[in-house]
């Protein structure tokens, strides 16, 4: 047991070599063969991200409140003081750490599914970009791995391009979670943040927006290819105001990572989800993956299905300080057509048939 703990601590430090050396120390134990240990490390790496996504912010808020009621209240007071001083940092692009983005834990995360990033066209560092990422899935696993870490080599595939994965602004109001997210180059999906990155952060920036958001997550299910996009035009307006090129991105296999109970329109479950989406910003989903020890049992570990993220051809967008509705509609249609073309070109390579269509809602 000590051997496994020591091995995983090496993974968190960003060095995977300790895993193999730990295995070699105990060659006589059959359960410590290389493949099994690597698989367990992959599962642990995925599970730690899932639990961080679901519980880290709430848990740290409760702990901070508790510390205030103990003799260590000064620690909590100092952190809250820092929080007030640092409050606007996420809105200015955050505070990314290349060390965190290159952790070996993310490579184990990548290999669990596995997740791949496919480049189809070069991107110019002299331009700024808005990546429209589809579909949302339950936890945006493909978007996170590809753009929130360096596990799939995004910086090498797109030299000079710095990705900023945008997520719910509420996540950056939670202690510790905000620091964890910012270290990966993740920022709030707010107008102020996107404006700052595209206008005051130089060039070579790519804001990655999962455009369908909570509404799209309610309709994701294995075998379903649907995006919520018809009435989502705000990202096009922002692109025109800053002259940022639009890039469609599609993750094949994202919807297969979890199984979800999809409530019918008009049911109490759908009503509750809509209320949460409207007033809180996210929609609670009833979903499950597999168990830690067996894929036949239910749990929070996503199913090990390949996720391949295709970065499509950029759409050149002119800069217009006050774009009219006609211009917005034009580039929105161009984006829809480009996404459709991307889906149709690659779908047969990932288990879909020629008759499968992309449902655009």
UniProtKB/TrEMBL annotation:
Q: Which reaction equation describes what this protein catalyses?
A: an acyl-CoA + a 1,2-diacyl-sn-glycerol = a triacyl-sn-glycerol + CoA; all-trans-retinol + an acyl-CoA = an all-trans-retinyl ester + CoA; 1-(9Z-octadecenoyl)-glycerol + (9Z)-octadecenoyl-CoA = 1,2-di-(9Z-octadecenoyl)-glycerol + CoA; 2-(9Z-octadecenoyl)-glycerol + hexadecanoyl-CoA = 1-hexadecanoyl-2-(9Z-octadecenoyl)-sn-glycerol + CoA
* Annotated membrane topology: Multi-pass membrane protein
Instruction: Tell me which Gene Ontology terms the entry assigns under biological process.
Output: diacylglycerol metabolic process; glycerol metabolic process; triglyceride biosynthetic process
Pfam families with a match to the protein in the record: DAGAT
> In its keyword annotation, does this UniProt entry include Membrane?
yes
Subcellular compartments? Cytoplasm, Perinuclear region; Endoplasmic reticulum membrane; Lipid droplet
Q: In which pathway does it act?
A: Glycerolipid metabolism; triacylglycerol biosynthesis; Lipid metabolism
What does the UniProt keyword field contain?
A: Acyltransferase, Cytoplasm, Endoplasmic reticulum, Glycerol metabolism, Lipid biosynthesis, Lipid droplet, Lipid metabolism, Membrane, Transferase, Transmembrane, Transmembrane helix
Q: What is its EC number?
A: 2.3.1.-
Q: Which GO terms describe its molecular function?
A: diacylglycerol O-acyltransferase activity; retinol O-fatty-acyltransferase activity
- Give TM regions: 43-67
Carries keyword NADP? no
Q: What is its main location?
A: cytoplasm
| GO CC annotation terms, alphabetical | endoplasmic reticulum membrane; lipid droplet; perinuclear region of cytoplasm
PANTHER family in the cross-refs: DIACYLGLYCEROL O-ACYLTRANSFERASE (PTHR12317), DIACYLGLYCEROL O-ACYLTRANSFERASE 2 (PTHR12317:SF14)
Q: Which family does it belong to?
A: Belongs to the diacylglycerol acyltransferase family.
Q: What's this protein's name? A: Acyltransferase
Natural source organism:
Leptobrachium leishanense (Leishan spiny toad)
């Amino acid at each position: 047991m000590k051997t496994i703990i020591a091995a995983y601590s090496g993974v968190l430090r960003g060095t995977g070599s300790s895993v193999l050396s730990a295995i070699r120390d105990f060659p006589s134990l059959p359960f410590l063969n290389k493949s099994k240990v690597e698989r367990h490390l992959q599962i642990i790496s995925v599970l730690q991200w899932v639990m961080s996504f679901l519980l880290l912010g709430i848990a740290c808020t409760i702990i901070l409140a508790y510390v205030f009621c103990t003799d260590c209240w000064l620690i909590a007071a100092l952190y809250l003081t820092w929080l007030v001083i640092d409050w606007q940092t996420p809105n200015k692009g955050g505070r990314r750490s290349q060390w965190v983005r290159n952790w070996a834990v993310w490579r184990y995360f990548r290999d669990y599914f596995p997740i791949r990033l496919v480049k189809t066209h070069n991107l110019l560092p002299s331009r700024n970009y808005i990546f429209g990422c589809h579909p949302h899935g339950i936890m945006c696993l493909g978007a996170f791995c590809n753009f929130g870490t360096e596990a799939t080599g995004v910086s090498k595939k797109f030299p000079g391009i710095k990705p900023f994965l945008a997520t719910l602004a509420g996540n950056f109001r939670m202690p510790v979670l905000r620091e964890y997210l910012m270290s990966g180059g993740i920022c709030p999906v707010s107008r102020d943040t996107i404006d700052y990155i595209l206008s005051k952060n130089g060039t070579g920036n790519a804001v990655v927006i999962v455009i369908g958001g909570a509404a799209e997550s309610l309709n994701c299910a294995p075998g379903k290819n649907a995006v919520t996009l018809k009435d989502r035009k705000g990202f096009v307006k922002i692109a025109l105001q800053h002259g940022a090129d639009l890039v469609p991105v599609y993750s094949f296999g994202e919807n297969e990572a979890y199984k979800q109970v999809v409530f019918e329109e008009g049911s109490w479950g759908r009503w509750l989800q809509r209320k949460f989406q409207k007033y809180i910003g996210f929609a609670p989903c009833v979903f499950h993956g597999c168990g830690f020890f067996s894929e036949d049992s239910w749990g929070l570990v996503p199913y090990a299905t390949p996720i391949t993220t295709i970065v499509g051809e950029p759409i050149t967008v002119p800069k217009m300080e006050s774009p009219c509705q006609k211009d917005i509609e034009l580039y929105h249609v161009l984006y829809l057509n480009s996404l459709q073309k991307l889906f149709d070109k690659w779908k047969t390579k990932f288990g879909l048939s020629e008759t499968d269509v992309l449902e655009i809602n």
